[in-house]
Amino acid sequence: MVGYVYILSNKSHRLYIGATTDLARRIAEHWQKKYQTAFTARYHFDRLVHYEVMPDYAAALVRESAMKQWHRARKVALIQLKNPNWLDLTWQLNDLSFLR
Predict the structure, then answer these.
(1) Where are the alpha helices (DSSP H) in 17-89?
(2) N or C: fewer beta carbons within 10 Å in the chain?
(3) Half-sphere exposure of 86 (CA within 13 A, CB side)
(4) Measured CA distances, 82 to 6, 7, 10, 89, 90 (Å)
(5) Domain range spanning residue 43?
């Protein structure tokens, strides 16, 4: 099963890094604030600014762990490489049924 590592951001460009097997579902959970006391709910993360497709969930977890160790400047550089305007990339996902 494929895995994903992703970075969410908000208006103040705070960063959150996560990993999942279902990126569309996970983004929907963040947007719906499924976990009310979670970091992403408290700081209103509202845009997917970077994601990577990995061969499996284990690889996504390894990549997530590595990225969380990076300094902020390296994370920002990764985002700006493909998304210099920090646009919401959710529209690139195949399953957007959660937007209804």
Answers:
(1) 23-31, 39-42, 57-69, 72-82
(2) C
(3) 15
(4) 13, 13, 17, 11, 14
(5) 3-99
Whole-number pLDDT of residue 100: 44
Classify 17 as helix, strand or coil: strand
50 membership: H or E segment, kind and range: strand 47-54
Determine the pLDDT at residue 77: 98
Beta partners for residue 18, in sequence order: 6
Dihedral class, residue 38 (left if φ above 0, else alpha if ψ from -120 to 50, else beta) = beta
pLDDT bin (cut points 50, 70, 90) of residue 96 is low
Total-model pTM: 0.89
Q: What is the domain count for the chain?
A: 1
The two tokens of residue 12 are 């103040």
CATH code of the domain covering residue 38: 3.40.1440
- Above 80 in pLDDT, residue 94? no
**If we measure between CA atoms, which residue out of 27, 62, 60, 64 comes closest to residue 46?**
27
